Each structure stands twice: as structure tokens, then as C-alpha cells.
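Figure S4 source data
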Amino acid sequence: MIRPAAGHRGRMIVLEGAEGVGKTTQAGHLAAALREADAPVVIVREPGATWLGEKIRGLLLDARVDIEPPAEAFLFLAARAQLMSDIRDHLEAGTTVVADRFFLSTYAYQIAGRGLPADLIQSANQLAVGGFKPDLTLVLNFPVHEGLGRKGNGGRGPDRIEQASAAFHESVAAAFQEFLTPEWQRAHPECGPVAGVDATGTEAAVARKVIATVTEWWPSLFESAPLLG
């Protein structure tokens, strides 16, 4: 059984991708597998996971609210800056943090999607996170139009981000693919290691792919956990 030793730092694993790729679902499966392996784990989401972050989330996703791109970026970064204290506390306690989005989403949505200046957004993000970077980010790959179709299945109507143009979402999806290239990762060491996961197939099949990818980084992590069916 895996228990953190005294003074053992936890790890942060981020699930990323365009709309509807299954980040939230797979974050839940990954956290469940970690608990089965007796690893302390907490799930956080962006924006959200704090009182301020959840208030900001409500504004950012409200389809009735008109928000200019720079204001949108600052709101996301404000939520992230507020969350960082909790993330650091969890990691110092030896807890694995599973994050449903982190700052690759800012690079994809605000830089690639909204067209904001990369250097300014990157600098502002570093201010928000204080030089922190995740231990591993998994980008879930799924066809962008199918993902948007998934999001519409709840009957609630698209939120403010989802209702953006097709060109916006295609730019976001293309950015996530670019993030997987060695050239991009060498140019952006502040993002930490990034790996792709094929998110097509059944929910359980994708969960197995996620766990297999995480296991490549920490081979003994799931040794005591039962295999997913």
C-alpha cells in the first residue's frame, strides 16, 4: 500500500483538453484509482475549488454575461491565484492533486482562442502560480465537434465558453495538439511534462489509458489497486 513518507511531497496531475473530451469524468476515475491504491488524493477544478473560484466560475460560464477577452483572462488567473495556496498545502501534506484543467487551458483558450498576447498572458500566469508547475499534464485527444456534441447532451444549453464560434473551438483544439509536440514543450518549460491520451473509446477504456500513462511516470503507483473493468 502506498502511503507518503514523512516529508514526502505529493504530486499534481492535470487533465486537459478541449470541450467535451471527458476531463471531469476521467479525473474522477483517476482519483478513484489512486484511492484504491491507498494514495491520498483530492480533485480540484478550474476555475473553482475555492469560494472565490466558484463565484468567478459562475461569471465566466454565464451565457448572459458579456466579458471582454482581457477581463476573461484576468478572471481565470484570479481564480487560479486563489487556488494555489490550497494546492501547495495539499502537496506539502503528501496528497496527490488531480486537477480538472490548469494553465494549459489559459494558453489554449486565451492565447490561441481569444488571440491575446502570449508573452503577457504567460507572465501574468507566472504571477498567479508563483513559478509552480504541475508534475504531469495529460491532454485528452477527442474530435472537437464530437466533444461539443457531448456537451450539448445535458439539455441545459451551451455556457458562455461553449457557445463561442466553431473557429474558436478549432483553434483551441489545435493548440492542445501543438502542446504535445517536443518543440513546443522545449520552448515552454514552465508547463512541466505534457503527455497525450487517446480519449476515444468507452469510458472505462479511456480510464485505463489514463492510468497506463500515469504509470509510465510513477510505475509503482497503482500496484495495490484492482484493474478497471
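Figure S5 source data
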Amino acid sequence: MQVVILPTADLACELVATIMERQIRRHPDSVLGLATGRTMEMLYDKLVLKHIESGLDFSKIRTYNLDEYIGIPPEHQGSYRSYMNNHLFSKVNIDISNTHLPLGNAPDIKDECRMYEWNIKANGGIDLQILGIGKTGHIGFNEPLSALKSRTRDKALTPETIRQNQGLFDSPEDMPRRAVTMGLGTILEARQVVLLATGNSKAEILAKAVEGPITSMISATALQLHESCVIVADEEAASKLQCRDYYKWVFENEPDWQEFRIG
């Protein structure tokens, strides 16, 4: 695991966007794993800008999102399909048939989960997986006690997750209580993983995820097992990391990061 700390959320998002841009330019038919949430909105804005200003080409890109709410159709304004269409897919030249999210209103949810897993494997697996982190330490909707080898499945959401996300719905009671999510085992099979964390509210849980023991109570700790995982955080989110001076030194001095450094 590598940790990169940048002064602001804007710079953190710019770095992740640049990592994604490099992947797309080097491998135009890449399979990307995508996330949703407030942290990702700035990231997708930057990708759209790269498409408009420098011709970043999404025409052969394939995508798989981490999760989707159960019980609402894709066209529902609170669905993650709507989120992705609004924030990214409708603004770049991606083939919408190459964009994949679990179908939250599928007649057989467990069969939908099995097919989602099969589809990822049939497309060669995920080259670059983008993640955020929830306040309980979840990645995707892998809530506490998620098995470290779990696969795509239906999952009950915690009251904390429901409180965090219900503001995205017109009425709080409309917030679904369950979701389909990629499992931790699914996520860990991606060839490269990048987690983006910004803001003071993520500081305590990020420190536990990066520097604490691996535990099913904090699903993001499973990323410590991945051989190519990068954590990108702004100063606020990184404020409780014990080794932040070392992480900064590595970013400023290691050749692998030279093309990404500021100034």
C-alpha cells in the first residue's frame, strides 16, 4: 500500500483523475471499476474536463460500478445508475452499453449478483478500481463483518450508512435499506486499486483503515492485502495518520511518482 497526501481536496482529485487518464491513454480498452458519492463528483468533473479540453477518449472503455440500491429502478433519481449518467456517462463519449451497474430491481437479486460477477470475469477483470471510504470504513457497501473473501451479493445497510445517504432522496424514508455490492474478494482482484479520501470526517476511519489491524469490522483494511493499492488523501483526511511525514517523503522522492508531482 502507498499513501499520497496532497494539500487540498482539489489536488487529491486531480491526482486520481491523472492516474485514470494515464490508464485510459495507455490502454484505451481498459476496464474501470467506479464508485459513487460526494467525493467522486469532483473527480468526475475533472475527467469530463480532460475529455473536453484534451480529447480523453472513453469510446472503448468498459466500466463496472461497485454497487446499487435494491428496490429502485435504474431511472430513479436516487439510483447510482442515474448518478453515473448525470456526473460522467452523459458528458463523455463512452458507449453506454459498456457501462455496467447491478440491477437493483432485478426479479432475482441473487442471480443478478452471480451474473455481475460472471460479467466482470468475462470482460477480463478490472484493470483499475476507484474507491471511496464510508464513515464506518466500508468500501462499496461492504458493511462491518463483511467477509474478506466475499463476492458480489445483497447486503443490509447500517443505520449510519442510511443516515449518510438519505439526504440524496426527496424523503428520508425513501432511502433503500439494502443494496447489491461487489464483495471484498471481488475488489481485491482488480489489478490496481486507488482509494480517494477527502475531508476531516474521513480522518479517523482512514487512519484505522491504513495503519490499523486488518479486520472485518472495517472493510477498507482489506486493502492492506492488495499488492498495488494507492491511498490518495488531502491534508484533512490524512490528519490522523501516524506516518504521514514518511508518506510525503516517499511521494516527493520516489521516481514512480515523478510525473505526478506538483511544481
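The chain is about 35% helix and 15% strand. The two ends are 25 Å apart (CA to CA).
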